[in-house]
What does this fold into?
Amino acid sequence: PDMRVLRLSGPRLVTSAHTEMNTFLFSVGILSVASAVMAMQAPVIPQPMNFTMGQVTVTLSSNFQFKSTHSSSTLDQAFQRYMGLIFVRSSSPTGSTLEEITVDVQSADESLKLETDESYSLEIAASPPSAHLSAANVYGALRGLETFSQLVMFNFTLNTYQLYGAPWSIKDAPRFPYRGILIDTSRHFEPVRAVKRVLDSMAYAKLNVLHWHVVDSQSFPLQSVTYPKLWNAAYTGQERFTVGDAKEVVEYARLRGIRVVVEFDMPGHAASWCVGYPNICPAPDCPDPLNPATNDTFDLIEGLLKEMTGIFPDQYIHLGGDEVNTNCWEKVPQVKNWMMQMNFTTDQAYMYFVERAHEIAHKVGRSPINWEEVFKHFGSKLDKQSIIHVWLNHATAKSIVAAGYRCILSNSDVWYLDHLSVTWEKFYDNDPYEGITDHQQQQLMLGGEVCMWGETVDASDIDQTIWPRAAAAAERLWSPANVTDHSLFLPRLEAFRCLLNRRGIAAAPTNNANARSAPPHPGTCYTQ
It folds into this structure.
C-alpha cells in the first residue's frame, strides 16, 4: 500500500534506551514527569482510560517518521503539526532508537459530530523500540497523537528526545462526548488569530467543542449576506468576522477534531440586532427582547439561520433563551396589544417565541440547544430533541435528565472562567454525574463546557484566563470517574501548563489565588 510518511530532516542517528528511569528523570530535572511516573500515572492530560507502563526510556531517532497507509489530508496536516510541536530543536542520539510511529485508521469517514468515536489505542514497545497508533477514524488518531506528543520530552543533557515509561499500552476513550469551551466575541472582539490559538490549546487538552457565542446585545460582529445590516452593530469596521473568516475557523477547528457550535441568543441578549433592523425590536428605547408580535422577527431569524447552515455545519445550534426580561413586552403598546389578542401572559409569549425558534431550527436542519431557564420555565412542554445547557444550578441537571432531555453542564459557580477566584481544584471536582445515579439518565448527560465570557477578556488575556484551569475540567470530562486525586493531578497540571507555554499558549501560573495573575516571584514554571 501507499505508505504516507512524514520524516524529521537530518542524519539517521541512533541511541540506546535507559533504565532506572525514576532516578534518571530526577537527575535531569524533569520533576513533574518523574512524579507522574513514580505514581504510576501517564504524564499526560487528560489521564487515559486504561494503560500499562514499564520503566524503560526510549530515545527517538533524529530522523523520526510519522507513517500511515490511510490517505487523508487531515492526518497529513496533523503529522506536520505534531512534527513541529514535538521536535523544536535538533538532536544527536546514539544507539538504538524509535524510528517511527505507524498510524492505522479504520474508516475514511471524516464527518465530525456529537457521536464521533474518539477512541484510540497506542502501543509503544521498548525492545526493540516501536510505536503503533490505531483508531476508528482520523479524530481518534488526533487524540492518540496528542497523547504520544505529551509522552516525549527533550533531554538537554544528552541532546536527545526521549519517551519515558516504555513499554506503554494505552486504550483510551472519552467519558463524555461533549467537552467544550465557550468564547464570547460580542463583549470583546477576538481576532481570528486569537480564536485559532484557543482552538490549538483545546486540542492539546482533547476538548472537542468550541461554543461560539458570536453575538450579544453589545455587538454583532459576524457578517450575514442575507441580512447585511446586522453587522452594523460591530464595535468598529475592523472588529468583524467575514463569512470567509467564520468558515476558516470552522475548518481550522475540524482539522483538530473540534466542532463549532454557534450561538445566536434569542429573544434576550439581542439588542444589537436592532441597530440594522429596528423593526424586529419592540421600540428604539426598549430593544430587548426581540419582538414576538411581528413575523418580520421570525422571517429574519429563519433567513439568518438558513444562511448559517452553510457556514456552521454542526447538527446543533445554540439559541440561548436565557435572562429574558419581558418588561419591554409589557411596556410597548404593539407587543402588549398582541399579547392581549393572543390571550398570552408574558411567560406564554416567551414560550411562543421559543417554540417558533425551535420550529425554524428544525426547518433548516438543526437541533436546538437552550440555556437552563427555558427548561425551568417550560419543562416537559419542550421538544424532546432539545438539549438543555445548565448554568445557574448544577442540581437542575438531575431534573433535566429525569424528564428525558439531554443536558450540558456549565454551572457558573465553578465552570465560569471569568470567575477568577475559582481554583483549579474546584474545576477538577465538578462532576456532571453528581446526583445522577440512574444509568439511562446518565446517558442523557452529554458532558459540559467551561465558559470564557468576554466582559474582561480580549486577545491580550484570553489564554491566561482559560489556562491552566480549563485543563482540570478537560480531565474531568475525558478521564474515568475515579481519577480524582488532587495530589496526583497537580504535578501533571504543572507540567501541562509549562507545555502550553512552550507551545505558545500564555497559560497562567497553576497555583494563582487569582487566575491570570502574573508569576508572584522568580522560579521555575513548574511550581508557580
